[in-house]
Amino acid sequence: MEGRVAERLRGALGPLGFEVHAFKVGWYNAILQPGFHLPYPDDTLAFVVLSTPSMFDKALKPFVNKERLKIIRDPVDQCVSHHLSHVKEKFPDQKVDVIFDYEILPSRKPKFLAQTAAHVAGAAYYYQRKDVKLDPWEKKKIYGVCIHPKYGGWFAIRGLLLFPDIQVPFLEQSAPVDCVSTEEKRIELLELFNFHWQDGRYRDIIEVKERYSEEQKAYFATPPAERFQLLRLTQEAQ
């Protein structure tokens, strides 16, 4: 069952520059505090959705062109929301729940921990402080970061698709690719991400197959409120 669902999702989202990776809710809940658990049985089928560098040209620009007058929030959030909600139509006989990366609970906690989901689904390795044996940071707060084996840090985790009526007790877990495997590189990655994240060097911690275009970098470096204007200008320039 998981294979058929995955195939249909990849057929719908792949050409738009998205990746989907399956996991069981239980894998995710097993490593988190109860306050962060997803409220589904352990064997429930779920997918984490990532955007790759090509999403900008394949999904975002066409969406902004078409929906120009309807965009009221951040164009990326609206574009992702449009396409993931659209996917539900591919499953008329199934209940599909969508949780977006920007959604929060009344307690102000995120509705799901994106990097944990990507790690348990085998999509990208979540490097954390505990992955470094000789920790050089003492009392400093150090945040972890996911690295994709193909895109390094040039990707984003956009949401979850959950299928409450599909139970997959026999789904096998695939481990994420440990592509930053030396102690030195892991320290360098966490240093760059925590103390120099603005310059984006952490994204190139490994050799990447594809990265954001200059136009896309400029777009994401622009404050969200001004992004729509930027896209309009680049279209007019073309």
From TrEMBL:
InterPro entries: MMACHC (IPR032037). One of its GO terms (biological process) is cobalamin metabolic process. GO terms for molecular function: cobalamin binding; cyanocobalamin reductase (cyanide-eliminating) (NADP+) activity; demethylase activity; FAD binding. The keyword Cell cycle does not apply. It comes from Haliaeetus albicilla. This is Cyanocobalamin reductase / alkylcobalamin dealkylase. Belongs to the MMACHC family. GO terms for cellular component: cytoplasm. Its EC number is 1.16.1.6, 2.5.1.151.
